């Protein structure tokens, strides 16, 4: 199998990465697209007490198991299957279950650090940064975390000010310079989705 067409989608938390990836996938139903998310690649913190785990800075790239991530990106680029880890967000531990991931002609990596690690950056044929003002991202995150993750406003605000915002400025925003494409995703934008879908259609025919 030829090397898959590989896309990295990054941008700050609440920029709409997962939304864009879902919309693009829905726009190309006949193309097998493998979506990988960085969410499964957090380090296993089972050796820490619950109190210590609650203090982990999940907005810092050191919270990720970049070694396993890089190994898997290399495998997927060679068209190989692999077992990815599963991560339990409630306990901050890696689950026993490993999920078999099959190769595909198109691969998308979704996550705030998908352009951060130098070891994997060169594997991506298209590097996308969703550029959304921080106030809009904060409002989206507040809504999502309160509505779907049962969080209080105070805890979302505290986390935003203590880790999300400073780590964004330090680690995520600089990744803009690695991107091929800066996409404004402040509003729903069907032209963007159509454009990405047509790139995928064209490239997957060549794969
Ligand atoms: N263009 C848009 N306009 C309005 N709301 C949007 C838009 N795109 C996404 N959202 C909403 O913003 C919230 C965050 O989007 P999403 O979960 O896709 O962001 P993300 O970048 O994947 O965030 P995270 O990095 O935290 O995983 C969701 O509730 C989503 O429905
Ligand atoms: Mg997401």
In CATH's first tier, which class applies?
Answer: Alpha Beta
Q: State mean pLDDT (0 to 100 scale).
A: 94
- Major pleated sheet: 5 strands, parallel
Number of domains: 1
Query: Which CATH-level-2 architecture?
Result: 3-Layer(aba) Sandwich
**Helix proportion range:** 40-55%
Please identify the structural class as seen in this structure.
alpha/beta
Low-confidence stretches: none
Number of strands: 9
Strand content: 15-25%
Order of helices and strands: EHEHHEEEEEHEHHEH
Total DSSP helices: 7
Arrangement of strands in the largest sheet: 2-7-1-8-9
CATH fold-level label: Rossmann fold
Instruction: Determine the CATH superfamily.
Output: P-loop containing nucleotide triphosphate hydrolases
Anisotropy-based shape: globular
The unique ligands bound to this protein are: adenosine-5'-triphosphate, magnesium ion
């Amino acid at each position: 199998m030829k090397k898959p067409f590989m896309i990295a989608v990054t941008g700050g938390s609440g920029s709409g990465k997962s939304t864009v990836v879902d919309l693009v996938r829905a726009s190309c139903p006949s193309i097998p697209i493998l979506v990988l998310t960085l969410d499964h690649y957090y380090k296993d913190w089972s050796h820490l007490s619950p109190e210590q785990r609650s203090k982990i800075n999940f907005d810092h790239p050191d919270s990720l198991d970049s070694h396993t991530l890089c190994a898997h990106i290399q495998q997927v680029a060679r068209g190989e299957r692999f077992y990815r880890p599963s991560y339990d967000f409630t306990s901050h531990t890696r689950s026993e279950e490993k999920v078999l991931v099959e190769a595909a002609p198109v691969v998308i990596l979704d996550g705030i650090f998908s352009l951060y690690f130098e070891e994997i950056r060169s594997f991506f044929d298209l590097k996308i940064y969703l550029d959304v003002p921080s106030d809009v991202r904060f409002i989206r995150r507040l809504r999502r975390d309160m509505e779907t993750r049962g969080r209080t406003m105070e805890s979302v605000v505290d986390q935003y000010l203590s880790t999300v915002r400073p780590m964004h400025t330090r680690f995520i925003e600089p990744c803009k310079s690695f991107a091929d494409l800066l996409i404004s995703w402040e509003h729903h934008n069907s032209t963007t989705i159509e454009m990405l879908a047509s790139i995928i259609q064209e490239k997957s025919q060549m794969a």
